[in-house]
Amino acid sequence: MRILPEISRTFGEYLLLPNLTEDGCTPDHVDLSAPVVRHRVGEASPLRIAVPMVSAIMGAVSSPRLAIALAQCGGLAFIHQNQPIAEQAEMVAAVKRHKAGFRHSDINIKPSATLGEVGDLLAAAERDVAVVTDDGSPGGTFLGLISTSDFNVHRHDLGDSVESRMRPAAGLATAPTGISLSDANTLIWDARQDVLPIVDEDGRLASIVLRRDYELHKQFRKESIDQDKRFAVGAGVNTHDYRERVPALVAAGADVLCLDSSDGYSTWQSNVLQFVRERYGDAVRIGAGNVVDGRGFRYLAEAGADFVKVGIGGGSICITRDQKGIGRGQASALADVVRERDAYARETGQYVPLCSDGGVLHDSHMAIALAFGADFLMLGRYFARYEESPSPLVRVDGQLYKEYWGEGSQRARNAARYGQGKTLVFEEGVDGYVPFAGSLYDNVSVTLAKITSTMISCGSTTLRQFHETATAVEVSHQSYLQNSEDVRLRDRANAIV
Question: Which residue ranges traverse the bilayer (predicted)?
Answer without folding.
Answer: none
